[in-house]
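stuck on this:

***
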Amino acid sequence: MCKRGLFRRWLARFRDDQRGNVIMIFGLSLVPLMGVIGVAVDYSRASRVRQTLSSAVDSAALMAARDAQTLTDAQLTDRINNWLKANLPADVQDQFTGATVAIDRKARTVKIVANGNVPATVAQVLGTTNLPVSTMSQSTWGTNTIELALVLDNTGSMSSNNKMTALKQASKDLVKIMQDATQETDQIRISIVPFATQVRIDRSFQNEPWMRYGATRETNCKNVWNWSTGNYEKQCTKETMTKSIWAKSTEGCIQDRDQSYDTNDSYSFGSQDQQYPAYWCAVSSLAQILPLTSNWSALNSRIDAMTPSGNTNVTIGAVWGWTTLSPNAPFTEAKPYGEPRLKKYMILLTDGDNTQNRYTSNQSQIDSRTALACTNIKASGIQLYTIRVMDGNATLLRNCASSANMYYEVTSASQLSPIFKSIAAEISQVRLTQ
């Protein structure tokens, strides 16, 4: 009994003595603890490598956009891979086997997907030899396919303070930038829409089903004595707008459509209220609309033809600018909305308040039509820039613009050219897309 009791006490003392266990437990836990610390260190390294790789891929994408026109697909891929490898840390370069490069020459895009392995250090105690990193970037080269409408105030107030002269020069500067940015036929096309209270279009449209004739006006009015009543009475000659009258080069212009078609691009012309009303020109010198074209000489010639005269109706200018960007009649030069990489823009410039349209001379009422037209234009997907030259309803034009930074306030005619150049550069620049 004594020996068995002694043995039990010895076992209990061994069980309760933890001095050796601490060392044993610490030794057993050291391996996973070091592994966790190593993983944290290695993942931090991997994160830094991924940032470096991402920056290198972005740079390579922009480089590819620059060189795509002069290199073959194979040459471009080699240049991208060499660029990426040269910008990676030394211990990662050997693990980099090359990027996946997708070149779409029709859409003019370069997509780069780069994968790499970061060699593990301390984390190897857990069996992790490499940590994978990956990133992607895409760029376009040249410019998007661009359709741009220049909707330009040609009213009488543009003759003051050198505004029309400055506008012509600014417009030509913009056209030159767009011409220089063009890399393919018809890649960039521009329309010009001079406006006053009306717009003028080419005589070749006289037989189109969307034209409406039959408007009347009174001319040669004079007061004639009526012996039977003993009073002077106003007597006028009544004229009716016919196709032959409108077709004369100095006669025919277009008024606002019937409301509410005056603020939209509806192209159903089955009823008269949907058609475009032919009318006598209030300003015989108003330049004609030039539909979308990449004929740079024609664009410059039309700019030169602009002459300031008449009152202001911003609505009709905006709506006809829209028609030049629409694939539907009256003009059909524009590409369909939503076509890949197609961007549609409008620059709407005026130097004064709305003063007259077909219906009224009430500025507030005309402003409401302009605001509605702008809302409809933007809803169609057109990016709208607005420029106020010294005078005009700043709030209206600011709200018309697609965003606050697309509204410009001009206090001197000399500012027009820098603004037009800035807009042209913004529209035509190469952009990195994710």
Summary: The domain at 145-215+244-433 is CATH 3.40.50.410 (Rossmann fold). The mean pLDDT is 86. The longest helix spans residues 19-67. The chain is about 40% helix and 25% strand.
